[in-house]
Amino acid sequence: HTGDPQAAHRTLDTADSLLVLAEGRDGEWVVPTLLRGWLAADRIEPDDSTGGRTLSPWVRTGLSHVGSALERKPGYAPALGLRGWFHLIDWQYNGRGDEHEIDDAERDLRAAAVPENPSQAFAWSVLSTLLVERGGFEEANVAARRMERLLALLGQRLEALRTNRPALLVARPVGPAHGVEREPHPLRLVAL
What percent of the chain is modeled with pLDDT above 90? Predict the structure, then answer.
């Protein structure tokens, strides 16, 4: 392990504090809350040398943030995917005994794995891992292939933007004044 882990954790603390400010400025926007869940996920560090881990408190913290996002925006696929991942990782590191937890993970990941949506490649990837854990190898392979296809599509869109090939950035005004729900990125890439 190289680098300065304490400085890295301080940086994550600062990021979390900034996201708290963003939450306070627009309580209906779920993205800052969901990003706080991702910060909690980044802090999970299983410690194999002692058998202890930092998993449990950060899983609880992450699930709390994801739960808050889902209260405000039920069925939000990115939040469901992250919640499914938290349940899966907790199940994997807690002896794989709680079948309810793995069932919850699978339910969330299936709901989040939206076909043809590149932003949900993460959900397809985690669903594939979960299905392997449960012995569903054929379905896991299908999920992994969907993830690969979505990542390739996303890569094509980014390459088109980078090389200025036929692609169009459509600016969308966001916010209540425009009657449009706020999104994490106000620009959407549309491939021509």
Answer: 40
